Amino acid sequence: MDQELINDIISTTVGGAVGGAVAGLALYGVQQAHVWLVDKLDTKRVLGWMRNNAGEHRNWPFRTTRTIASYNNLTEDRVRYICSHCPDIYMSRGLNEDRWTLKLEED
Q1: Where in the chain are the domains?
Q2: In 3D, which of 90, 95, 44, 94 has the Cα closest to residue 63?
Q3: DSSP, res 101
Q4: Rounded distance, CA 1 to CA 74, Å?
Q5: Fold of 3-102
Q6: Rounded to an integer, what distance in angstroms lies between the CA atom of residue 23 and that of residue 93?
Q7: I need a labelling partner for 16 at 20 to 30 A (CA). Which of 35, 47, 67, 92 fits?
Q8: Is the pLDDT of residue 58 over 70?
């Protein structure tokens, strides 16, 4: 084989591999940015709804996952994910499982 042909094959192969790797990393970055943005927007929507429907500061009620999902047009699994990852929302313990409330702020 001609040495020039071998060099062309190697450079094309390396170039294709590097280009594919860069494209894959770029796609992964865009995907992670989208996931982060959707999480932030859904969290903001749920927090806003809970604050608007919370009532008095010291007597914030617990809301069921189904209620939160219904009013915010989200699935119950999505609400569980958002509420469990948000530091401003707490899950009830004990007999009333699957209920969420806002964190009490320090005075």
Answers
A1: 3-102
A2: 90
A3: E
A4: 62
A5: Arc Repressor Mutant, subunit A (1.10.10)
A6: 46
A7: 35
A8: no
